[in-house]
Amino acid sequence: MSDTYPPSSDFVSGAHVDAARYDEMYARSLSDPDGFWADQAQRLDWMARPTKIKNTCFEFGKVDIKWYEDGVLNVAYNCIDRHLKTRANQTAIIFEPDNPEDPAQHITYAELYDKVNRMANVLLSQGVMRGDRVVIYLPMIPEAAYAMLACARIGAIHSIVFAGFSPDALANRINDCGAKIVITADTAPRGGRKTALKSNTDAALLHCSDKVRCLVVKHTGDQTSWIQGRDVDLNYLMEHAAPDCPPRPMNAEDPLFILYTSGSTGKPKGVVHSSGGYLVYAAMTMEISFDYHEGDVYWCTADVGWVTGHSYIVYGPLANGATTLMFEGVPTYPDASRFWQVCEKHKVNQFYTAPTAIRALMGQGDDFVTGCDLSSLKVLGTVGEPINPEAWNWYNDKVGQGRCPIVDTWWQTETGGHLMTPLPGAHATKPGAAMKPFFGVKPVVLEPTSGEIIEDRPTEGVLAIADSWPGQMRTVWGDHERFEQTYFQQYKGYYFSGDGCRVDADGDYWITGRVDDVINVSGHRMGTAEVESALVAHAKVAEAAVVGYPHPVKGQGIYCYITLMNEVEPSEELKKELRTWVRTEIGPIASPDLIQWAPGLPKTRSGKIMRRILRKIAENDFGALGDTSTLADPSVVDDLIENRANKG
Ligand code: ATP
Ligand code: MG
């Protein structure tokens, strides 16, 4: 039985949703989806209110998902204009720059309106029309939000490429979506170092149509090259643009953006999201999952280059009229107290980050946290991967001081918003559990081979979703067949998440990691995350990644890549010690067969370990590493190949 952490009665009484309300709303969301989601649509201002709510077909070959199909709205209007009457002078965006010595900016809703309208007019003047694609290759600066909203205002489709990506990755995305424009900045400081975004863009554009224009934000003022006729000074044009640009009426099903998945499991997919359904879902999950209240200061530390940044830095918060914080820097610069300094400085109420950041900060010791005043915090969130209980407990004790419910939100680029999470005022949380489905979400646990639904509790299997929710992706850009094949072919009639999950005796959900990461050792199926979690609980281990490899006797053997803590020396003794450790923590069946010391692990730019590459190395199959363009540091891979553990 795991520990449970119920919210305090004070918290419950102030929360939007308590346990009884959750049960009642959840039941209605399933029994009367049309009524439920028609009500939720009232969160938005529509130019024509939708009368048709849900219209979906999941028959393979004809997958078609529509929500609010006759509704007409403008997303930027909903995120800006409609708030002006009551909160023109309220801060919409707090910008906290990389360097803590530089002043923070507070951008009001009135200023946001001005900037977005001017940028929208610039886009129009550059010939951008409804349905055209605009690639945004910007760091975490307010202009990134302006650019998103400017696109939304005129009905252009944006596709953000994370500013840490290489010229190649940028070029691939510009070409895949056929963008007319790329918006970038001169250079981008991050953690005290600068990325030359404009010169990366120059390099990328060598591989793109010469019709693509480049709009450049002057951010640091650093010198850049300039190609007359192609490059455009965005700041200059904005200053001279008209300050009003009417919001274009868009159909609810018109695409709002394309976002490429992080590529942990294969070639990135251009996930397409809608305008109406997406915004309803982003707005609702933002308010309910974080128990956001009027006047709160909300901070999601993700990058706008990830879906988390789309839904929970920009669209969700602004649709709710919130104050959202954009942070340009990294958690460890100038030192490991930065996150907590920023929370203290801006009196952050809701704080949302990733397990990888929590683990990194936890490794630096408690002093960085305990020295800061975190009394403003009310709710904490995590997203991105399963959080190991050790990190959860640290987050709960040291950051939340036992006072703040932790919402472990499970979702994907494809889902637009949270699909599972405890609600802070409704559920007693469990360290590492995503707990409960969000409203309208019908999770099913499938037996991996037969695809049959497993109703028994407790159980474990493949996580799929029956039916639809408004934030669901609509297609893969330019490849509807890939959309159907990736998500609807394996288990007919269901959306296949690619993740595995466990349901405990209470009916609560635990994400066990990607299904590909389940290994079968002598007939025992286990999630590699479990072995990793045991390994990182050892004091000498900083990080671990576990994959299966073909084993003549066991079917699959357990191959562990381990990064040791700073001062620890690798040795054969230590390998023995770790094997014994895992045997006692989990059992003999989980005992590592091969251990490789890994000074670094191959990670995506979003900080996720790319296990598919580690699997290939473990299988001795170096020729087929697949798409490595989204790796943060490709040299890590060469090192791992060179020092591959001997199968012996
Ligand atoms: P690709 O689909 O290209 O391989 P990706 O799946 O890493 O990339 P994202 O959409 O950013 O791209 O990540 C979604 C995945 O992250 C989920 O499928 C799941 O594996 C993991 N994940 C997200 N949140 C959680 C969570 N709270 N608990 C466990 N896993 C999570
Ligand atoms: Mg994925």
TrEMBL record:
<feature type="binding site">
    <location>
        <begin position="408"/>
        <end position="413"/>
    </location>
    <ligand>
        <name>ATP</name>
    </ligand>
</feature>
<feature type="binding site">
    <location>
        <position position="522"/>
    </location>
    <ligand>
        <name>CoA</name>
    </ligand>
</feature>
<dbReference type="InterPro" id="IPR000873">
    <property type="entry name" value="AMP-dep_synth/lig_dom"/>
</dbReference>
<comment type="function">
    <text>Catalyzes the conversion of acetate into acetyl-CoA (AcCoA), an essential intermediate at the junction of anabolic and catabolic pathways. AcsA undergoes a two-step reaction. In the first half reaction, AcsA combines acetate with ATP to form acetyl-adenylate (AcAMP) intermediate. In the second half reaction, it can then transfer the acetyl group from AcAMP to the sulfhydryl group of CoA, forming the product AcCoA.</text>
</comment>
<dbReference type="InterPro" id="IPR011904">
    <property type="entry name" value="Ac_CoA_lig"/>
</dbReference>
<feature type="binding site">
    <location>
        <position position="308"/>
    </location>
    <ligand>
        <name>CoA</name>
    </ligand>
</feature>
<feature type="binding site">
    <location>
        <position position="538"/>
    </location>
    <ligand>
        <name>Mg(2+)</name>
    </ligand>
</feature>
<dbReference type="Pfam" id="PF16177">
    <property type="entry name" value="ACAS_N"/>
</dbReference>
<dbReference type="GO" id="GO:0005829">
    <property type="term" value="C:cytosol"/>
</dbReference>
<feature type="binding site">
    <location>
        <begin position="190"/>
        <end position="193"/>
    </location>
    <ligand>
        <name>CoA</name>
    </ligand>
</feature>
<feature type="binding site">
    <location>
        <position position="583"/>
    </location>
    <ligand>
        <name>CoA</name>
    </ligand>
</feature>
<comment type="similarity">
    <text>Belongs to the ATP-dependent AMP-binding enzyme family.</text>
</comment>
<dbReference type="GO" id="GO:0016208">
    <property type="term" value="F:AMP binding"/>
</dbReference>
<dbReference type="InterPro" id="IPR032387">
    <property type="entry name" value="ACAS_N"/>
</dbReference>
<keyword id="KW-0547">Nucleotide-binding</keyword>
<feature type="binding site">
    <location>
        <position position="525"/>
    </location>
    <ligand>
        <name>ATP</name>
    </ligand>
</feature>
<feature type="domain" description="AMP-dependent synthetase/ligase">
    <location>
        <begin position="81"/>
        <end position="466"/>
    </location>
</feature>
<dbReference type="InterPro" id="IPR020845">
    <property type="entry name" value="AMP-binding_CS"/>
</dbReference>
<keyword id="KW-0460">Magnesium</keyword>
<dbReference type="GO" id="GO:0003987">
    <property type="term" value="F:acetate-CoA ligase activity"/>
</dbReference>
<feature type="binding site">
    <location>
        <position position="536"/>
    </location>
    <ligand>
        <name>Mg(2+)</name>
    </ligand>
</feature>
<feature type="binding site">
    <location>
        <begin position="384"/>
        <end position="386"/>
    </location>
    <ligand>
        <name>ATP</name>
    </ligand>
</feature>
<protein>
    <recommendedName>
        <fullName>Acetyl-coenzyme A synthetase</fullName>
        <ecNumber>6.2.1.1</ecNumber>
    </recommendedName>
</protein>
<dbReference type="InterPro" id="IPR045851">
    <property type="entry name" value="AMP-bd_C_sf"/>
</dbReference>
<feature type="binding site">
    <location>
        <position position="514"/>
    </location>
    <ligand>
        <name>ATP</name>
    </ligand>
</feature>
<dbReference type="Pfam" id="PF13193">
    <property type="entry name" value="AMP-binding_C"/>
</dbReference>
<keyword id="KW-0067">ATP-binding</keyword>
<feature type="domain" description="AMP-binding enzyme C-terminal">
    <location>
        <begin position="530"/>
        <end position="608"/>
    </location>
</feature>
<feature type="domain" description="Acetyl-coenzyme A synthetase N-terminal">
    <location>
        <begin position="22"/>
        <end position="79"/>
    </location>
</feature>
<dbReference type="InterPro" id="IPR042099">
    <property type="entry name" value="ANL_N_sf"/>
</dbReference>
<keyword id="KW-0007">Acetylation</keyword>
<dbReference type="GO" id="GO:0005524">
    <property type="term" value="F:ATP binding"/>
</dbReference>
<keyword id="KW-0479">Metal-binding</keyword>
<dbReference type="InterPro" id="IPR025110">
    <property type="entry name" value="AMP-bd_C"/>
</dbReference>
<feature type="binding site">
    <location>
        <position position="541"/>
    </location>
    <ligand>
        <name>Mg(2+)</name>
    </ligand>
</feature>
<keyword id="KW-0436">Ligase</keyword>
<feature type="modified residue" description="N6-acetyllysine">
    <location>
        <position position="608"/>
    </location>
</feature>
<feature type="binding site">
    <location>
        <position position="499"/>
    </location>
    <ligand>
        <name>ATP</name>
    </ligand>
</feature>
<dbReference type="GO" id="GO:0019427">
    <property type="term" value="P:acetyl-CoA biosynthetic process from acetate"/>
</dbReference>
<dbReference type="GO" id="GO:0046872">
    <property type="term" value="F:metal ion binding"/>
</dbReference>
<dbReference type="Pfam" id="PF00501">
    <property type="entry name" value="AMP-binding"/>
</dbReference>
